[in-house]
Design a protein that fits this description.
It is built from four helices and five strands. α1 packs across α2 and α3 packs across α4.
Length: 159
Amino acid sequence: MRALGIDFGERRIGLAISDPRGRLALPYGVLERQTDRRAAYQIAALARDEEVEMLVLGEPVGLDGSRGDNVDRVRRFGARLEKASGLPIRYVDESLTTVEAAHRLAEAGLDRRDRIELRDAVAAQILLQQALDEPPSKDSPSNDSQAAEPQPLSGAAEV
């Protein structure tokens, strides 16, 4: 099952896509967010074009497990995206994915400008790989917040 990972941000939305079998996540690109409505429809169109069957959206849960206003914000965007795409959404804990993405890109020797350009797509890759590695429980397939070890970085493409 092909899936699309989404690292939601107020300015930039990182995107990652799985291979057609749903085993490996790859950075896809970054969408410059203007409005939620426009972003939801752009992501829905991308999902249709890429024959995606499931969306994975990162939730900014606190390190202590707390769920604040940012989680509510992401959930509102998720509801809009689910309506625009008609696809199921699985929520995963995105704690520290952006930090991990920045670290991986620095280790790969990319200069600062390239790291900034790729960071959100790599964060989306990390959260998508978490979801691919940890199938949702039968009780709550659209409300998973489990984390797994991130996978190695692959190439990226622009949206």
